[in-house]
C-alpha cells in the first residue's frame, strides 16, 4: 500500500518507480528486496514521509522491531502531521513487549491523532496485553464509535481475545 495519498509534492519518476517496486516486493513477501529498492531512492528524497513509511513497512515485515521503532520515531519528528509514524512506532514497541511504552507513545500523540479510530484500537490491544481489560474495553468502544468497521477486526484480533471471552 503506497502512502502517496493527497501529498502535494511531486516526486521524480525514479522515486515513484522505486516506491512502487518496493510495494510490489512487499506484496510478494520479499522485504529485503523492498529495502534494497528503497536504498536506491535519491538522497534528497530519503527523508520524505512516503519513503520513510515504505522503509518502516519493510522493516515490520522483516520483524526488525527496534529498527522500525527508531525510524518511526525519526519520521514522527520530521513529519509531525503524519499519524502513521506514531501508530507504527507504537506497534513496533508492542512487538518488542514494551506495551507500556507503546501506550505512552499513543497517549502523547497530538490531540488530532487521538481522535482516530486506529489509535484507540491499538491502545485497546496494548491495554489488553498489559492486563487492564477495563481500559481496553473503553478504548475499543471509542475506536468502534469513531469507525464502526473496526468491530470486525477487533473480534478476530488475538490481542483483544480476553475482551470477548
Description:
This protein has 165 residues and is mainly alpha-helical. Helices cover 68% and strands 0% of the residues. The chain is built from 10 helices and no strands. The chain has helices at residues 13-27, 31-39, 49-61, 65-78, 83-95, 99-107, 117-130, 133-146, 150-156, 161-164. Helix 5 (83-95) packs parallel to helix 7 (117-130). The radius of gyration is 17 Å and the shape is elongated. The relative contact order is 0.08. The model has no long low-confidence stretch (mean pLDDT 89).
Structure described in brief:
By secondary structure, this protein is mainly α.
Characteristics of this structure?
165 residues; mainly alpha; 10 helices
